[in-house]
Design a protein that fits this description.
The structure holds 2 protein chains of 2 kinds. By secondary structure, chain A is of the alpha/beta class. Chain A has a domain at 6-93 and 166-251: Rossmann fold. Chain A is built from 9 helices and 10 strands. Chain A has helices spanning 46-53, 76-83, 101-112, 118-131, 147-159, 177-194, 205-211, 229-232, 239-251, and strands at 6-17, 20-31, 35-40, 61-66, 69-70, 86-89, 165-169, 197-202, 214-219, 222-227. In chain A, the strands form 2 sheets. A 6-stranded mixed beta sheet of chain A has the order 6-7-8-3-9-10, with helices on both faces. A 4-stranded antiparallel beta sheet of chain A has the order 2-1-4-5, with helices on one face. The longest helix of chain A has 18 residues, at 177-194. Chain A is globular, with a radius of gyration of 18 Å. By secondary structure, chain B is mainly alpha-helical. Chain B has one domain (43-260). Chain B is 88% helix and 0% strand. Chain B has helices at 2-37, 44-55, 59-83, 90-128, 131-137, 142-181, 185-195, 198-224, 230-264. The radius of gyration of chain B is 22 Å and the shape is elongated. The chains are: A alpha/beta, B mainly alpha. The interface between A and B is medium-sized, with 24 and 15 residues.
């Protein structure tokens, strides 16, 4: 498989909410088995970008292709087929709070792979909980889990459908530094083990440095710099990127 | 004065726009329900789970309320009937009142408060915590799982709860009649069944189905369209109750007109 095969291609993407222009002509590529980190201030449109990618939002104009398919043109059935290839880890984990961890994991699995036996379902759930290091939580309710555990279970739930692309929305937001480190390691492990391509949305530079192959900085609705961490940050000339870097590293 | 009128105009126009947009949204929501309810896959397990929650968990409240309504209505009606020496008509009067109006109305209003608000709050909270989006991106149908199952459950369970309320209210009434008029249970229920007609029972059933559907669809609609934040969840729960109660009274009035028209034929 070609390592530079594009799995996501975004060209001149525009999205507004009323009078507020969030994305003003965004261009971006994600390559196979790459971890791409999208950085930007809160409210800069990072989450909007990945929500358009899975069809939760629709762009106003521009092109967004995933595996060569224009997401906005897909019918419901085709969109669902594409969504099976994309795992979305939400900022607040979005675990179904009326279900146990097992039921959370089962929910997408039994609805998308109808021919599985109970034994096979259990095996896949246990295997994934093992891989995120939380086999003991299987019968717990989300309210009994810590923030870091919820994030891990959220990732495990998305992995149960064997996605080819992982989208992480603020994976380290609201977590202590040690748990942040654990989540960053998990993101790297997922890529290693499941050969996924990932987009990590964050404003945490430590997370970006640890997990990302490339960084893309979203400022004022456009990507101002795309490259490796060292290319984008330490010698940044753009004052906004520089202040973003200084704020993260000097204040932390 | 002219300036004030100009200031009001856009606000009024916005409110009218909002009203009709809301109406169109609600219509589309109801239409989507009817499109999805017959299409596989079916969420049988969730429907049964919701039936249990809505039906069985409402029983204690419904039992107490129905029983009290039966006793109170009997005790309130007795003096008026006794004035005309018609206290023996109490079972007939109570049965007609309970089966035709009070049973369905009391059950629906209690269910709107208990079940409607809980549906609105639950779905609203799932919406603001992105749980509905999480279902959507995992290629499952949250509308079918959350909305269709709950609306089906309320539509099925409210008529059963109404029948139960009718029975409990009549038992409450019987206790009062038995204590004061020394009427036996068999005599009481013979009079009850003599007074009610097939039309009374079918119209009551029809109303109950309508009320159940209304409670479910309004709760789901308000929850599904709740705005961001915890305040939005509270508003959704509150709006679900207020709107459902309002619609229940309107439906009661319309069905009454329809039944009276049938009776007059």
């Amino acid at each position: 498989m070609n390592q530079r095969e594009k799995v996501v291609e975004i060209r001149n993407l525009v999205k507004s909410f009323g009078d507020l222009d969030v994305l003003k002509g965004v261009d971006l590529d994600l390559f196979r088995e790459e971890n791409l980190v999208v950085l930007g201030k809160s409210g800069s449109g990072k989450s909007v970008l990945i929500k358009i990618m899975v069809g939760l939002l629709r762009q106003d104009s521009g092109k967004l292709q995933v595996f060569g398919q224009e997401v906005i043109n897909l019918r419901k059935k085709e969109l669902n087929a594409l969504r099976l290839k994309i795992g979305f880890s939400f900022q607040n984990s979005a675990l179904y709070d009326s279900m146990t961890v097992r039921e959370n994991m089962e929910f997408p699995l039994v609805r998308n792979e109808k021919n599985l036996t109970r034994k096979e379902i259990n095996r896949r759930i246990e295997e994934l909980l093992d891989s995120v290091g939380l086999p003991q939580t299987i019968n717990q309710m989300p309210s009994e889990l810590s923030g870091g555990q919820k994030k891990r279970i959220g990732v495990a739930r998305t992995l149960i459908l064997n996605p080819e692309i992982m989208l992480y929305d603020e994976p380290t937001a609201g977590l202590d530094p040690i748990t942040c480190g654990d989540i960053n390691n998990l993101i790297l492990e997922v890529r290693e083990r499941y050969k996924t391509s990932s987009i990590v949305i964050t404003h945490d530079l430590a997370c970006a440095k640890q997990t990302g192959d490339r960084m893309a900085v979203l400022l004022d609705g456009q990507f101002n710099a795309i490259g490796t961490f060292d290319e984008v940050f330490p010698n940044a000339t753009d004052e906004r990127i520089k202040s973003f870097y200084d704020y993260n590293f000097i204040n932390s | 004065m002219a300036v004030e009128a100009d200031d009001r105009k856009p606000l009024l126009s916005k409110k009218i726009d909002k009203f009709f947009t809301g109406l169109a949204d609600a219509w589309n929501f109801v239409r989507r329900f009817f499109q999805e309810v017959f299409m596989p896959p079916y969420e049988f397990k969730e429907v049964i789970h919701q039936c249990y929650r809505i039906g069985v968990e409402s029983l204690p409240l419904i039992s107490l309320t129905g029983f009290i309504v039966g006793i109170v209505f009997t005790n309130q009606s007795r003096p008026s009937l006794s004035e005309f020496g018609a206290a023996s008509w109490l079972p007939s009067l109570i049965s007609i009142a309970v089966v035709r109006a009070m049973g369905p109305l009391v059950t629906a209003l209690i269910a709107a408060g208990k079940v409607g608000s809980s549906i609105g709050a639950e779905i609203g909270s799932m919406k603001v915590t992105e749980q509905i989006d999480a279902m959507e991106v995992s290629a499952t149908n949250p509308f079918k799982f959350l909305v269709v199952s709950r609306v089906l459950a309320t539509t099925l369970m409210i008529p059963l709860l109404v029948m139960y309320t009718d029975f409990v209210a009549l038992m409450g009434s019987f206790l009062s009649v038995n204590k004061n008029e020394m009427v036996s249970m068999s005599t009481f229920f013979v009079q009850v069944f003599e007074a009610i007609t097939f039309l009374d029972v079918t119209s009551s059933l029809f109303k109950s189905i309508l009320f159940g559907f209304t409670i479910g669809i309004v709760g789901c609609y308000k929850g599904y369209n709740s705005s961001k934040g915890t305040e939005g969840v509270g508003r959704a729960a509150n709006a679900a109750v207020v709107m459902a109660m309002f619609l229940i009274f309107i439906e009661e009035l319309l069905v009454l007109q329809l039944v009276n028209a049938i009776r007059g034929m």
